[in-house]
Amino acid sequence: MTKKSINSEGPISPDEFKAIKLTVASPEDVLDWSYGEVLNSETINYRTQRPERDGLFDERIFGPIKDFECYCGKYKGIRYKGVKCDKCGVEVVSSKVRRRRMGHIKLATPCSHLWFVRGVSSVMANILGITFSDLEKVLYFGAFVITEVNGKLVKETQAALDREFQRY
């Protein structure tokens, strides 16, 4: 699915659908759908009552607040439709695009969605072949999972632990 299909104008007729398929979006899909990265947790500037730059409501990412008007006011009116302001970086389009546009947030560490962890049977626990309680420990940093083992290093570490155990 591309930005074009997500952001199509107008309602879609039920006759256009033959089936609906829900899948988990890949990181590449999310980046493809995104119009920019949200870098700031701020929403609205308390003095100007306008969206904060790089924030959760940024006009450069999600589109203008006012129809066919950029943030700085350099371009106003429908005659500038589609123009991207060189001063503030906001595209001059209808404010309705804010309902369809998405941004993305890069996380410092990977995380899991609650829907895959909890439920009648934990999908993630079933896929990994571990119990729900073990999965919960891993997710909340109480335990870890070893995915690759270096045999030589294991033997050296085991020998060092045995020597230390015999000293006491």
Automatic annotation (TrEMBL):
<dbReference type="InterPro" id="IPR045867">
    <property type="entry name" value="DNA-dir_RpoC_beta_prime"/>
</dbReference>
<dbReference type="GO" id="GO:0006351">
    <property type="term" value="P:DNA-templated transcription"/>
</dbReference>
<keyword id="KW-0240">DNA-directed RNA polymerase</keyword>
<dbReference type="GO" id="GO:0003677">
    <property type="term" value="F:DNA binding"/>
</dbReference>
<dbReference type="InterPro" id="IPR007080">
    <property type="entry name" value="RNA_pol_Rpb1_1"/>
</dbReference>
<keyword id="KW-0548">Nucleotidyltransferase</keyword>
<dbReference type="InterPro" id="IPR044893">
    <property type="entry name" value="RNA_pol_Rpb1_clamp_domain"/>
</dbReference>
<dbReference type="Pfam" id="PF04997">
    <property type="entry name" value="RNA_pol_Rpb1_1"/>
</dbReference>
<feature type="domain" description="RNA polymerase Rpb1">
    <location>
        <begin position="16"/>
        <end position="150"/>
    </location>
</feature>
<keyword id="KW-0808">Transferase</keyword>
<dbReference type="GO" id="GO:0000428">
    <property type="term" value="C:DNA-directed RNA polymerase complex"/>
</dbReference>
<keyword id="KW-0804">Transcription</keyword>
<protein>
    <recommendedName>
        <fullName>DNA-directed RNA polymerase</fullName>
        <ecNumber>2.7.7.6</ecNumber>
    </recommendedName>
</protein>
<dbReference type="GO" id="GO:0003899">
    <property type="term" value="F:DNA-directed RNA polymerase activity"/>
</dbReference>
